[in-house]
Amino acid sequence: MSQDSKLIFVVEGDIDYSYSHYRNLKISSGMFCFIPVGQRVVCNSLSAATLVIVRLFYLSDSQLYRQLSSLLITEVICDDEPQALETKTPIKRFIEDLFICMNDGLICQKYLNGKVNELFFLFKAYYSAYDIKTLFKGVVTRDFLFIENVYQRHMQHKTVESLAKAMNNSTSTFRNRFKEVFGIPAYQWMKQQKIILIQQELELGTKSFKEIAYEYNFSSVQVFNDFYKTNFGKSPGEIRKVTELT
Q: Which domains are present in the chain?
């Protein structure tokens, strides 16, 4: 589970990427995309590819987010599918310089934080407010601090009550705010997120069922198997066999 948002720049080649319920979104050289906090992204190279990934730590508490918030616009209708943008020449130069400096070992956190802020100044200079809103949809909202905190914390909590307490809310206040922001009850959302992440784990095939059961707070592999079969109609073993064949 990623604890930060990120930008993925495709410097060379072509990839497809998947996260949450989005699958096999294609992006080519000279384009970039945004991955929101709390999402495990899987990238597959369609041709020899070079990527630069810029991580946006605690975005809601940053100068970058305050600048994003200043671009709040209400009359923008975006497609549900995540959007990628063209990497314009000034951004390409920025990425090339960043790539060189990091390869030279310049990875001081203060330097990198400064570069993130510089990157956003370039966004403001070379992209329209519409483009920025489209790229960062779901972030450029007045509820993003709440959303980011939910994504960063929910995997550590089995119940809505526990998550509400961790976010310094009463359970009733948290339930109401959650339903208002996410559009569904908190318990239903937490269950959906667990299902999505477990499905990604099985597709990746890098962890044993025991490891997945432990990571997602199941008391045993059998309980994990029962949960999965109830929600998918098949056992994890059956799904993994199908994935391995495709």
A: 5-135 (2.60.120), 157-245 (1.10.10.60)
Q: How far apart are CA 8 and CA 160, in angstroms?
A: 32
38-62 per-position pLDDT tens digit:
777 888 899 999 998 888 765 655 5
Query: HSE on the CB side for 29, CA within 13 Å?
Result: 8
DSSP assigned state of 61: G
> Structure tokens of 154?
């929910």
* Structure tokens given for 178: 């959650």
Query: Six-digit token pair at 54?
Result: 């810029």
pLDDT digits (tens, 9 = 90+) for 95-152: 999 888 888 888 887 888 788 888 888 988 999 888 888 888 766 667 777 887 888 7
CA 16 from chain centre, in angstroms, equals: 15
Measured distance CA(31)–CA(11) in Å, rounded: 8
Dihedral of CA 19/7/48/207: which sign?
A: negative
Q: How far apart are CA 205 and CA 217, in angstroms?
A: 19
Q: What is the DSSP letter of 155?
A: G
CB count within 10 Å of CB 170 equals 11
**Sign of the C-alpha dihedral, residues 115, 144, 22, 18?**
positive
- SS3 assignment, position 113: helix
DSSP assignment, residue 22? E
Torsion of CA 172, 174, 177, 183, to 10 degrees: -100
Q: What are phi and psi of 73, to 5 degrees?
A: -130, 145
